[in-house]
Amino acid sequence: MNVTRAGLKKYRQAATYSLAAALILAVTLYLALPVVSLFFRTTPDLFFTSLADPGVSSALWLSLFTTTVSLATVVVVGTPFAYFHSRTTYPGKMLVDTLIDLPLVMPPAVAGVALLVLYGRTGLIGRYLNVFGISLAFTTTAVIMAQIFVASPFYLRQAKSLFEQLDPAYEQTARTLGASPLRTFLRVTIPLTGSGLIAGAVMTFGRALGEFGATIMFAGNLPGVTQTMPLAVYEGMEGNFNAGLTISILLVIISFGIMIAVRLVAREGGFRA
Amino acid sequence: MKQELKNDRIITGCIAVGLIIMAVLLAGCTSSTPAQPPAQTPAPVAEVTTIPVPQETTVALLSAAATVPLTTTSTPAPVFTASPGNLIVFTAASLTGASPAIGSSFTAAYPGHKVAFNLDGTQALKTQVESGAYADIFISASNSYTNTLKNEGYFINSTVHPLTTNYLIVILPAGNPGNIQSLADLAKPGVKIDMEAKEVPAGTVTIQTIGNLANTTYGNEWQTALFKNVVSYETSEPAVATKVSLGEVDAGFVYESTFTAAPKNTLMAIAIPKPQNVLQAYTIGVLKESTNQAVATEFEQFMLSPAGQQVLTNYGFRPVS
Q1: Dihedral angle at the C-alpha atoms of A173, A176, A180, A183, nearest 10 degrees?
Q2: Does any CB of chain B come closer than 8 Å to the CB of residue A221?
Q3: CATH number, domain at A167?
C-alpha cells in the first residue's frame, strides 16, 4: 500500500515536471521563433547589399540620432523632475502621476494625432508658432518630440519609484556632514539609484527606437529627415522587401543589445529591470 | 511541508482537470483517461454517459439558433462571417470616399448581399494577398500591380477588367496658405508639398507627371526644387488629402476624384494639363481563393454596369474610354 502511494507521488511529480517543461518550451518558442525566422529569410550577402542601400543607412543614422537626442532630453529633464516629484507633495500630484502614465496606455497613432492638432501649423499652439516662422510638424524635431512623448514614461516611472524607495537617511547624513543639496544629489542620490536609472533609460531608448505610429502621423515619412527605421520597414514591406528585412534584423540586433545591457546593469547594481 | 503537499495536489488537480477537458473536447473516442489511475470497470460506462451531453448541446444550438454559420446554408448569415452573400473586397484607398455608396447601392440591387471593404494603398493590399489574406474581389489602382498578381496566379484572369480611370490634380488647403497660383509656384522656396511614396500607385503617376511637366514646360530646375519642397511621402492617397485639408501642408498631389468628393469649401485645386497628366487605370477582378465566386462575379458585373459606373462618376471618376 505504501509502495503504491509513493509510486503515485512520483508519478504526479513527473507529470508536473513534464507539464512545466512543455509550458516553458511552448512560451519560449512562441516568442523566439518569429524573431529567429527573420534571420533565416536573408543571406549575409543580401543583408550587406541592402545595408549599403542609401534608404537603409539614412534610416539607421536618423534613428540613432533622434533616439539619442530624445534619451538625453528625457534624462536631463526627467531626473530632477522625478526627484522633486517624489520628494514633495503638492496639490494635483495624483493627477500628474496619472498623466505621466497616459502615453503608456494610449495608442501611439492617437499620440501622433494629438501632437499634430497641438503643434501642427493649424494646431492650438502651432498656429502661433507659425506666425514666428516656427514649424514643427514634418521635421526631425517632430520625430524627437514624438519619441519623447511616447517613451519618457518608462524613465519617469522608474526614476520616480527609485527616489521614493531610497531612504532619505543617506541624504540627511550627507547634509549634516556639510554637503550642499546639489552635491548630495550628485554624490549620494545618483550613485545609489544609478543602475536603476540606467535600466529605465535603456527601456526608454528601446521604446523610442521602435516608435512608429506617432512619428508617421506627426512627422511624416521623408527619407533622411523623418523616415526612421520602423517607418522604413513599413515602406519596405510595400516595395523593397529586402530593405525592410535588413532593417528589421538591425532592429532585432539593437533591441537584443539593449536587453543584454539592461540585464548587466541590473545585475551589477542589484536592481531588477 | 504540508503546504508543499497541498500545492502539489492543487497542481495535479489542475492537470487532471485540464486533461479531462481535453479528453472531452477530443470526444468521439471512448478510450483512455490517463490522469485517473484508479480506473475500474465503471469508468467506460461513465464516459459513455458524459459524451452525449456536448453532442446534445451542439445539436440544440444548431436547431435553435440561426447564428451558426458553418453548416447552415438556408438561414441568413450574420454580418461578421465569411459566408454566402458577404463579400470581402480589397479596394484601392482612393475609392475610400466612394466605398459606402458602392456598398449600399450593391446591397440595394442585390438584397441580402453585402460587401466589406479593406481599404489601403494597392501596394499594401497586394502584399497582404501575397501573404495569404483572404479576399473575394481585388480593385487595383495600378495596372502594373494587377499584372503582377495575375502572373503570380492570384486572379481568375478572365475576370480581370478595366473598371475606371482617374487623372491627377494638385490640391491646396481652403485658405491657400502657400499662396500658390500656378504649378510653377510649387517650386517656390518654403512651399510644403505632400505626395504619395513611389510604391503607391498615385505616387508612381505623380512622379511621372512631374517629369512630363518638367520636360515639356517647367524644366529640370523646377522639378528639383519641387521635390526639395516635399515634406512627406504618404503610404496611401487619402493621407495626402487629409494633411492638405488640415492645412498642415501647402499643396498635395491626389486624384481628381478625391477633390471632387471632398466636402465643399475645404480644398482648392490647380488642374494639370491633360497632355502631361498620366491617366491612372483601375481594374477589378475575382481572386482564385474566393469561396464565393458566384456573388463575387455579381458584384463585378454590378460595378461594370451603368448603375455601378454611375456611382463612380458621382464621385469624380472617369469612365474607361
Answers
A1: -20
A2: yes
A3: 1.10.3720.10
Q: Are A111 and A212 in contact (CB under 8 A)?
A: no
What domains can you pick out in chain B, each with its CATH number?
A: 2-64 (no CATH), 86-165+280-314 (3.40.190.10), 168-271 (3.40.190.10)
C-alpha cell read off for A111 = 499620440
C-alpha to C-alpha distances, A114 to A5, A120, A217, B64, B232, nearest whole angstrom: 65, 9, 9, 48, 18
E strand map for A43-96: none
Work out the average pLDDT over A155-179. 90
Mean pLDDT score of chain B: 79
pLDDT digits (tens, 9 = 90+) for B148-207: 999 999 999 999 999 999 999 999 999 999 999 999 999 999 999 999 999 999 999 999
Q: What is the pTM of this model?
A: 0.73
> Under an 8 A CB cutoff, do B197 and A8 touch?
no
Cα separation, B269 vs A86, whole angstroms = 55
Does the structure's ipTM exceed the value 0.90? no
Assign residue B176 a region: left if phi > 0, alpha if psi is -120 to 50, beta otherwise? left
Nearest to B182 by CA among B270, B259, B277: B270
- Residue B51, pLDDT score: 34
Cβ neighbours, 10 Å, residue B86: 21
Nearest CA in chain A to B196: A221
- For residue range B28-83, what is the model confidence (pLDDT) as tens digits? 333 333 334 333 333 333 333 333 333 333 333 333 333 333 333 333 333 334 44
pLDDT of residue B47: 34
The beta-carbon neighbor of A116 closest among B121, B231, B248 is B248
Total number of domains constituting chain A: 2
A vs B: CB pairs below 8 A: 69
- The nearest alpha carbon in chain A to B13 belongs to A12
Domain with A90, as residue range(s), is: 44-269
SS3 of residue A208 by DSSP = helix
